[in-house]
Specification:
Largest sheet: 3 strands, antiparallel
Distance between the termini: 120 Å
Strand content: 5-15%
Strand order of the largest sheet: 3-4-5
Number of domains: 2
Number of strands: 5
Length: 257
């Protein structure tokens, strides 16, 4: 089955790929290490009929819970969609439990000063005791890495959730009604010879009488007043036309005679 990169279930992932997988890898490795050391300690404590400390129970529970949470979220990430809000709730709860477990472990080993001493047979009076010292240091280191990486994943979830809220809700193209309507309009055939443009506006029924205009030959009257054009050039043109007419009549008369 081939999946598109950073696209899960047809919906793009909102997580940045490198920080997302890097933090999850650190969480997984540290959780598996803590769970393995806790299983080793609890097995031998039960074998020797010693009571199991609450520190071991808390670390064992939170490490297993982290492994299960990582498995569930990676399935959601690859096959459906991993909601930043859902992952934020998971990492928020795990962060609190990891912080509590690390605090309890640090307090329990503070009296023996395991972290400050070298893990050698000379210091601990035996190889078995030196091995337990190394296990405790590894346990504390992995618990610290798990706590820090889980808090960092929580910060990444919060950042991604805020960014997704600013962008708005994602809608698949086939679910967008506006996009579907536009696609239908583009696919709708338009018959040839048919114009769907706007109809030209028709001239309103305005008559000369409705605006007070009266046409009378060469004069235009507005409201009964003569507004004929009179000017010096108009008078000279009329005089020239009369002279030209008289000359033409005289010339025709001489020709007849």
């Amino acid at each position: 089955m081939v999946l598109k990169r950073n696209v899960r279930g047809g919906k793009p992932s909102e997580y940045p790929r490198i920080p997302f997988h890097g933090l999850r890898t650190a969480q997984l490795i540290s959780s598996i290490t803590v769970a393995g050391i806790m299983s080793y300690f609890m097995y031998y404590l039960h074998l020797e009929h010693f009571s199991i400390p609450w520190t071991f129970i808390v670390l064992m529970c939170v490490s297993l819970a982290t492994i299960v949470a990582l498995a569930v979220t990676i399935v959601l990430y690859n096959f459906t969609f991993l909601s930043p809000r859902f992952n934020l709730i998971l990492n928020g709860g795990l962060s609190l439990i990891w912080a509590m477990g690390l605090g309890m472990l640090s307090w329990s080993i503070s009296t023996s000063q395991v972290l400050a001493k070298a893990c050698s047979a000379y210091v601990w009076n035996g190889e078995a005791e030196a091995g337990v010292c190394r296990d405790y240091k590894a346990l504390w280191s992995m618990s610290l890495i798990a706590t820090v990486s889980t808090f960092a994943a929580l910060a990444l979830d919060l950042h991604t959730w805020k960014k997704s809220n600013r962008r708005g809700a994602y809608v698949l193209p086939e679910d967008d009604k506006s996009s579907q309507r536009l696609r239908d309009l583009n696919l709708k055939p338009t018959p040839r010879g048919t114009s769907e443009g706007y109809e030209a506006p028709r001239q309103q029924g305005v008559t000369p009488q409705s605006r007070g205009l009266v046409w009378d030959g060469e004069h235009t009257e507005l409201g009964g007043e003569d507004i004929g054009y009179h000017s010096r050039y108009g008078a000279e043109a009329e005089a020239d036309e009369e002279v030209y007419s008289d000359a033409l009549i005289g010339e025709r008369t001489r020709g007849v005679a």
